[in-house]
Amino acid sequence: MKLQNKILFLIIVPLQFLLAQNSQPFLKDFDNLKIAKVPLIGKWLGPRDIFKHRLRTLAKWQKSNPLEMYQELRDFRPVANMSKIPGLKLGINSPDTIYLSKRVDIIETMEQPGIFTVLPYSRKMKALGGHMLAADETDFNNIEKPWMRSLMPHSDIAKIKIILEEIINETLKEISVKKTGLTDFNLVDDFARKVPAKFADKYFGFPGPDLKTLYRWSRTTQENYFHNLRNNKKIIKRSKNSEQEMVKYGQKLLSNPETLVEDSILKRLLLSNEVARNEITEERVLVNIIGAIIGSIETTQTAFIYALQELSRRPHFFELAKIAAKNNDDEKLAQLIWEALRFNPINPAMVRVAIKDAVVGKASGHPREIKKGTLILLGIQSAMFDESQIENPREFRIDRPYEINLNFGYGHHRCLGEMINLIQLPLMIKKMILQKNFQLLPEAKKKKSKSPFPENLRAQFLI
Ligand code: HEM
Description:
The chain folds into two domains: 1-76, no CATH class; 77-462, CATH 1.10.630.10. Helices cover 53% and strands 8% of the residues. The chain has 20 helices and ten strands. Strand 6 and strand 7 form a beta hairpin. Helix 2 (25-31) packs antiparallel against helix 4, helix 13 crosses helix 16 and helix 16 (282-312) runs parallel beside helix 20 (418-433). The mean pLDDT is 90. Protoporphyrin IX containing FE (HEM) is lined by residues 132-133, 141, 145, 291-292, 295-296, 299-300, 303, 346-347, 350, 407-409, 413, 415-417, 420-421, 425. Protoporphyrin IX containing FE (HEM) binds next to helix 8, helix 16 and helix 20.
C-alpha cells in the first residue's frame, strides 16, 4: 500500500467508525461504504460505487422499514447526496444525484418545471415523437394537456361509472364461469389488468389487437419510463418496440375512422375543433391516445393490488372497507384506499433533472446549490409522511384531506387520468371485496420475478 493511502486509511477508518456509531440505523447503512477494504485492492471507491450502494440501501429499506428511513432522511439529511449515477445518458453531464425528502422541498421543485425537468422520460419516449410527460412548458403541456382534459370532462363521470360497472361485472363473470364453490384466480391478469384494458377499448376507443398485447404494451413502456433509472438496454428495446407497435396499430385504426368506438376519447379527439382547424394534427391525436393507454393499465393494476394488500394487512380497516362497500359508503371506501396507498404507494419516488445550476431545499431551510444535470429523486412517500405538514403521519386514518395524496403527482405533470381513477380504483376494489369470502391468497414461493409490477397474485371468492 502506498504511504499516502496508508495515512488516509489510518484517518478515514476510525473517523468512519466514529460517525457510524453516532448515526441513525438507516443513515449508518447508507453511509457504510466499507472504505476500509478498498486500499487492500488498491482502488478507492468512485462516485458510481457510492451511488450503487446508496440506491441499493434505499431499495432495501423501502422494502423493510420505509417510514423509519424517511424519518431519518427528513430529520438528519433532507437534501441527501446519492453521488453520481452510472450510465445515465441524458445528453447532459450528470454530476450528482440528490434525494429530497421534505414535502415543502419536493413541492417547491415540482413547481419549477422550467428548471427541474422530466428529461429522463424524454429520451425514453422518443419513438412516440413528443409527449406531455416527456416535455416541460411546451405546446405538449400547455395546449395538448388542456385539450385532452377538455375532452375527458367531469360531466363524463356518470358515463364512466356505467362503462366500468359493465366491464367489472363482465370480468367477474368471466372469472366465475362454469365454477361453483371456492374459485381461485389470478387477481392480476384476470382482473386488475383486465378492467383498465377493457376500459381502454370502451372509453378511450383503443382496444389493441388483444388483451395480452395491451398488457405487454403498457407493462414494457411503464417499466422503461418509471423503473429503469439505470437505462438497461433490454428494457429500453422492449419499450421502444411496444411504442412502435402502438403507433402502427393506431395508424391502422385511424385509417378506418368509421370503425372507431362511438363517442370514445379517440373519436372526440379526431372530431375536435382543434383538429378541424388544423391546430393539432392526426399524428398528435395518436400520440396522445397512446400516452393515455400507456398511462392507464399498469398503474391502475398496481394501485389496485397495493391498496388491497395494504388493507388486508390491517384486518380492522379491511373490515371497515367491506362494510363501507356493502353500505355504498363510497366516500369512506375511497378514504381507506387513498390512505392505504399512502402507506403502500405505487411510486415512492419520482425523478427530475435540473437543466441549469439551481438551488434545492430552500423551502425547508436547507438550501443546497446543485449543478446543471443533477438528477433529483423526489421522495413522494416521505412527503406524505412529513410530520411538519401531516398530522400523526404514522397513524392509519380515514379523515385525511385528499390534497395530501401525491400518488397522482403534483403540478405541471399531475396525472391526466386522476379523475378516471377517483372512480375506477374504488369501484374495482368495491366490487371485488363484495364477493363472498373474498381473500388474497399467500404469495407462492417461486423464483423472484423480474417484473417491477405485481404478477400472478392469487385470490379467491365463493360462488
Ligand atoms: C392509479 C392509477 C394511476 C396512477 C397512480 C398514476 C400516476 C401518475 C403520476 C404520478 C404521474 C406524474 C408523473 C411525474 O410527474 O413524473 C402521472 C402522469 C400521467 N398520467 Fe397517470 N396515473 C394513473 C392512471 C392514469 C390514467 C388512467 C391515465 C389515462 C389518461 C393516466 C395518464 C397519465 C398521463 C398522460 C400523464 C402525464 C401527464 C403530464 O405529464 O402532464 N394515468 N400519472
